[in-house]
Amino acid sequence: MPTVKDSVHDHIEVTGVASDLLDTPPVQRLRRIRQLGTVDLVYPSANHTRFEHSLGVYHLANRALSHLGIEGQQAERVRAAALLHDIGHGPYSHNIEGLIYRQTGKYHDDIGDLVESGAVARILTEHGLNPDRIAGLVAGEGQLGQLVSGELDVDRMDYLVRDAHHTGVPYGTIDHGRLVRELRFVDGELVLDEGNVQSAESLLLARALMNPTVYSHHVARIAKSMLQRAAERLLAAGATTAEELRRMDDHALHVAMRECEGTVEYARRLEQRNLYKRAVWAEMDAVPEDILITDHETVRDFERDIADSVDLDPDEVILDVPSRPEMTESSSRVLVNGEIRELGQQSTLVGALRAAQRDQWRLGVYAPVDYSERVGNQTIRTLGLDLDGALVRDVRPGINATLDDFD
Q: Cβ–Cβ contacts within 10 Å for residue 182, how many?
């Protein structure tokens, strides 16, 4: 029975099926995929991996099962799903997941093909576990699937604490011990027991604060966008296939970028942190409605139009249109006077956080530093942005500059 020293949960004992799964290639591959992708370009200590996180999710799932009184094969299924829940991640975690989905139709929690053959399938079968049922739990199916993938899942509880710990920011700190102890199943729904509205709010607040500070920091978004563009060019050049890309780790993708003529410049820029700069950083109210809902191909058309207008290579203009803000945690359920209620209906904090998310939303346009001002002005004309709502960054130090401009 291996015991692993973890930076967040201290000692984690790995038993049963999880112990046998630990050294399988799909799980060990997670050692080479950083949990936060390009965020380490903002927070240098954010080098923790999906492997560490998966161990943490396993640990919290194990504790939740104990508190819920779930034992035997049901518990083993959940433990296996918790450890395996991230094996479908591509390189740099979520950073190129959208591209992989467009090419393959699969997200990271589609792990069926990874558990139905090879070492993982053999171990699951030896322990009397059906691989399809494990894949279903990872996708959030069934009552117990809510523990692995849902509004109150142990995945979220681990990554918030772990990401805060490794970035050094205080915003993701939550009482995961209390959250795990207070989980209950009521009529097949995973809920927090009586007296835990504030505990549920803490989970919501932690995610809302981590998003602008860590997950959507503008430097991480720029690097992510450049990485996505490089991956697109790798596929276009025939240097790899979408399925191969999906199974790479961070190192393999970076090597592929170095070795392909069409992406070597992106590799160099990411290595040296010589990133594109913000040409536009526009609030939601400044952006026409049709831009907010535009598809990937239309975005590429806009990029080509902007680039042509300033005599720039189309791949050197990146239009980054985030999806509308979501707050899935607001649908988490709590018991209030014996009645199951959604947090969004019970907590006045939810409305304020939704408004804050909308205020924090930004459309970004990125380009090489020497072109960013021209690209910014052309973007405003091409997209029809409201000049009062869009902020065009002048890249010269001291001109309309804030500390963030030099990150």
A: 20
List CB contacts of 10: < 8 A, sequence separation 6 or more. Answer: none
State how far the Cα of 31 lies from the Cα of 115, in Å rounded to an integer: 18
Residue 395's domain spans which residues?
A: 276-324+361-407
pLDDT tens-digit series, residues 286-316:
999 999 999 999 999 999 999 999 999 999 9
> Phi, psi at residue 279, to the nearest 5°?
-95, -35
- C-alpha radius of gyration, the chain, whole number: 22
CB atoms within 10 A of CB 314: 14
CB 171 within 8 A of CB 161: no
Domain boundary residue, one of 115, 150, 168: 168
Asked whether the beta carbons of 180 and 63 are under 8 A apart, the reply is yes
Cα dist from 48 to 54, 213, 360, 362, 385, whole Å: 11, 17, 26, 27, 39
Q: What stretches of 284-342 adopt beta strand conformation (E)?
A: 318-320, 333-336, 339-342
pTM of structure: 0.93
